[in-house]
């Protein structure tokens, strides 16, 4: 089994040195441990080692694991289908992947039924990659305004972005910088349902670069839990997907 504790120490050291290089304090950067394909045992080991936030990208995995995981903040970081919002609305603390008004309206409706206010981030696709979800940089402001206008049970807490894959992560810094620029601009909007606090950017291979651009929430999976083995994960789930 992976040395999850040891890996966490290394990840925290990487966060700390990236933060200090950027003239920031490491306490400004929230670490979300991305636990997709991981067992409850592995996830609870991470929680015992100090992880306070976990991220999943599939509704089914959240439902399967929810009862077996120790108290922790849950982040939905993957693409969310409208018809599945109802299964996680009472389980997750922050939804990172809102990229359409239709999805926001469904979240708003389900949050209302649970008499809660749902915290969300708007997901931006800064390089307009077809393979990725997210709203374009140029469409973000309109979506934000529509959500603020129509979704009284949603609080918009910031932005999320997944950068293109690059051999050298420094090559995609320009995208992180663009998203940061939008973040700063939107932060200044005064609205009772806008309270920017999270700029969710950076994964195992590029979180140092993202922190250099101003990210304050990094989503780190393989650097903590080891490389994902999707084959083994499928076998464990009896061939289901
Ligand atoms: C899987 C995933 C991550 C973590 O990726 P690693 O490369 O394992 O750190 C981060 N963000 C999203 C949206 C993911 O799906």
Could you explain the architecture of this structure?
With 241 residues, the chain is α/β, with parallel strands linked by helices. The protein contains 10 helices and 8 strands. It has one domain: Alpha-Beta Barrel (TIM Barrel). It has helices spanning 4-21, 40-48, 59-65, 85-88, 101-113, 140-150, 173-187, 207-213, 222-225, 230-236, and strands spanning 30-34, 53-56, 73-76, 94-98, 118-124, 154-161, 194-201, 217-220. Strands 7-6-5-4-3-2-1-8 form an 8-stranded parallel beta sheet. The chain is globular, with a radius of gyration of 17 Å. The mean pLDDT is 96. The chain binds pyridoxal-5'-phosphate (PLP). Pyridoxal-5'-phosphate binds at residues 34, 36, 57, 77-78, 162, 203-205, 219-223. Residues 34, 36, 57, 77-78, 162, 203-205, 219-223 line the site of pyridoxal-5'-phosphate.
What can be said about this structure in brief?
The protein is α/β, with parallel strands linked by helices and 241 residues long. It has helices spanning 4-21, 40-48, 59-65, 85-88, 101-113, 140-150, 173-187, 207-213, 222-225, 230-236, and strands at residues 30-34, 53-56, 73-76, 94-98, 118-124, 154-161, 194-201, 217-220. The chain contains ten helices and eight strands.
């Amino acid at each position: 089994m992976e040395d999850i504790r040891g890996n966490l120490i290394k990840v925290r050291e990487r966060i700390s040195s990236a933060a200090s290089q950027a003239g920031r304090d490491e306490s400004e950067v929230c670490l979300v441990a991305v636990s997709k394909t991981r067992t409850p045992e592995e996830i609870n080991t991470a929680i015992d080692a100090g992880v306070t936030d976990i991220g999943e990208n599939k509704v089914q995995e959240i439902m399967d694991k929810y009862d077996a995981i120790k108290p922790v903040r849950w982040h939905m970081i993957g693409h969310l289908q409208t018809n599945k919002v109802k299964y996680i609305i009472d389980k997750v603390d922050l939804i990172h992947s809102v990229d359409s008004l239709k999805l926001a309206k469904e979240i708003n409706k389900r949050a209302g039924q649970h008499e809660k206010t749902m915290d969300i981030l708007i997901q931006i696709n800064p390089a307009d990659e077809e393979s990725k979800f997210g709203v374009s940089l140029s469409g973000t402001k309109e979506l934000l305004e529509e959500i603020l206008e129509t979704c009284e049970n949603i609080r918009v807490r910031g932005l999320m972005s997944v950068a293109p894959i690059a051999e050298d992560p420094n090559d995609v810094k320009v995208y992180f910088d663009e998203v940061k620029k939008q973040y700063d601009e939107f932060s200044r909007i005064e609205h009772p349902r806008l309270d920017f606090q999270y700029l969710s950017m950076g994964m195992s291979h590029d979180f140092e670069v993202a922190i250099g651009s101003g990210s304050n929430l990094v989503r780190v999976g393989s650097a903590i839990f080891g490389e994902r083995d999707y084959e083994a994960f499928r076998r464990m789930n009896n061939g289901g997907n």
